[in-house]
Amino acid sequence: MVNALNCPNCAAVFNPKDSICEYCGSYIITSEAKQVTYDLKEFKATYKKIFFHEIEMGLNELPMRSGLANIYYSATKSDGGRLLLTNQRLIFCAHVLNINPNLYWEISLKDVDRVELGLNLLISQRIKVFDVKGTETTFVVYGGKNWIAEIECALNQN
Question: How far is it, in rounded angstroms, from Cα 128 to Cα 125?
Fold first, then answer.
């Protein structure tokens, strides 16, 4: 675990274990856990901004679940990173160790048509996200059934 980071809002040094920048009051999510489901009561209205690593949450946007994931292209090609579900969008950010470290993918929940469970590979599962135009994006995640349930819950709230 990293001992210190810079706040993406004000650039002050902060301890990632604290999650809150003591200078500007931003809440920064830096979890290294395989999968995390967030308690929305944890995010107080007093936080000036909420960040998932360096991604700023929008107005009234709250994180719901995050975890390790691969965006899957084919049996021989994928990029590893983290997947984040918020109450407004689904976001994937590649790890900096990838050949393509600048990879960023997101979709507004308003543009999601449906999600389906794909192939089960023992502890990991594929989830397929279909947009309203029929485009399919596949992720390999831990606990695919939980991801599907939480994405469907978020879709039903919109």
Answer: 10
